[in-house]
Specification:
single chain, alpha/beta, Udp-n-acetylmuramoylalanyl-d-glutamate--2,6- Diaminopimelate Ligase, Chain: A, domain 1, 3 domains, seven-stranded parallel β-sheet, six-stranded mixed β-sheet, 22 strands, 36% helix, globular, EC 6.3.2.10, cell division, Mur_ligase_C_dom_sf, cell wall biogenesis/degradation
Length: 438
């Protein structure tokens, strides 16, 4: 091993950070290499990033981080014990180097929408950097932190989890100063071990912030949030408690959520009363960070949902609510209840399986079927093996074991002149329904 390469092998974290600052961004996929980036050769179940080290350099990476000496190429190759651990440690080092306020949020439903709203509002006054898409896990959080620059004034970091201690781990990486939990619902029940496990796991964000005397935004309409933050430095919002730091009045959700804030009426482009709390949380943070009321109003009213999240799409005579990014029993329930209240003569629901429910999968899918029986929805198509195992005597319900079976059987004319909601877990990829309507 050359002397130069030995130097890189024993490089201290602050020296590695200097190399990082020389680079133009971070990359973990050679298909997305940009000139002068820092490439981390991560491993996956079916690949070893070390084998792509040479390719990354050839495509323009300035430095490559590897953990297998076999793939040493030049002084541009930095050998470490563990690439993933180095990514995480470097992200924390960079976060401390920047020393800016970090807002972290998690929750069972609505965290990505809330994160987008927060970022939209705060960016009216500050240079912000927020989690891109849903890069919210043990890799995504470090990548988010490393996407922040010396120009970033506030960081917004989304944290996802499907088991205990995951949020705790992500907090140690991001070291947030502020936190918010959107809600506690029936998501990832298999990994968390039931709803109580979800509450415990998500509350790891509270535990971290409370232990350091940091600040927590609390929706006082949620009794779990109130109970879990009794001993915290809280910034409260809601509509019924006069002691709140900020009160926001819900006005309507037909078809879009509107609310009253500091005597300003705000009409969003988000459907469903369940999105009121997401908007209110973002407004609360904007208010705390002294974004002007007019900028908050403009930010909320200009935000348009995307990425299969509560998107409104028009296909000929069909109006579609595309909410196919993900689903769990809690989000499915509120979405269907909202949908049933819409005024239309032909309301159709296309619903896909909900994943990661473990032993509760059968019961939860049957509960959704039972719910649709009682709602004002004219036709329901259930797709997936879990829904296929349920039963219903309601003539408006039709079951398909797979998307392919639905595709081969469905008469698309039934979707004409209709209001349609499409919702299911990510693995169902129900946005494919749009392709059938082209």
């Amino acid at each position: 091993m050359s002397g130069l390469f030995l130097y890189f092998y024993f490089m201290e974290l602050h020296e590695l950070h200097k190399r990082y600052l020389e680079c133009q961004g971070v990359c973990t996929d050679t298909r997305k290499i940009t000139k002068d980036c820092l490439f981390f050769a991560l491993k996956g179940d079916n690949f070893d990033g070390n084998t792509f080290a040479k390719k990354a350099l050839e495509k323009g990476a300035k430095y490559v981080i590897i953990d297998n000496q076999t793939y040493q190429e030049s002084h541009q190759t930095i050998l470490v014990d563990n690439v993933l651990l180095t990514l995480q440690k470097l992200a924390t080092f960079h976060r401390e180097y920047l020393n800016i306020p970090i807002i972290s949020l998690t929750g069972s439903n609505g965290k990505t929408t809330t994160k987008e709203l927060i970022n939209t509002i705060l960016s009216k006054k500050y240079k912000t950097t927020a989690t891109l898409g849903n890069l919210n896990n043990h890799i995504g959080v470090p990548l988010t932190l490393l996407s922040m620059t010396e120009k970033t004034e506030i960081g917004v970091v989304e944290m996802g989890a499907n088991h205990q201690k995951e949020i705790e781990f992500l907090c140690k990486i991001a070291k947030p100063d502020f936190g918010y939990i959107t809600n506690f619902g029936k998501a990832h029940l298999e990994g968390f071990g039931g709803v109580e496990g979800v509450i415990k796991g998500k509350s790891e964000l509270y535990d971290y912030l409370i232990s350091l005397g940091k600040h927590i935004f609390v929706n006082t309409e949620d009794p779990i949030q109130v109970e879990k933050t009794k001993n915290a430095n809280t910034i409260t919002f809601g509509f019924s408690d006069k002691t709140n730091h900020l009160n926001i009045q819900f006005l309507d959700a037909n078809p879009f959520v509107s609310l009253l804030f500091h005597n300003l009426t705000i009409t969003s482009k988000l459907i469903g009363a369940y999105n009121f709390s997401n908007i209110a949380a973002a407004i609360s943070m904007g208010d705390y960070f002294k974004v002007s009321d007019s900028d908050i109003k403009n930010a909320i009213e200009s935000y348009t949902p995307s990425n299969n999240r509560s998107q409104i799409i028009h296909k000929g005579t069909t109006n579609i609510i595309l909410d196919a990014y993900n689903a769990n029993p809690s989000s499915m329930k509120v979405a269907l209840e909202h949908f049933s209240k819409q005024k239309h003569q032909n309301k159709i629901a296309i619903l896909g399986d909900m994943f990661e429910l473990g032993s509760e999968a059968k019961e939860e899918h049957q509960a959704i079927v039972n719910l649709t029986n009682s709602l004002d929805i004219h036709k329901v198509y259930f797709l997936g093996e879990n829904f296929y195992k349920t039963t219903s005597k309601d003539t408006k319900a039709t079951f398909f074991k797979s998307f392919q079976a639905f595709e081969e059987t469905i008469n698309l004319n039934t979707l004409n002149n209709a209001l349609v909601i499409i919702k299911g877990s990510r693995g169902m990829a129900l946005e494919r329904v749009l392709g059938l309507l082209d």
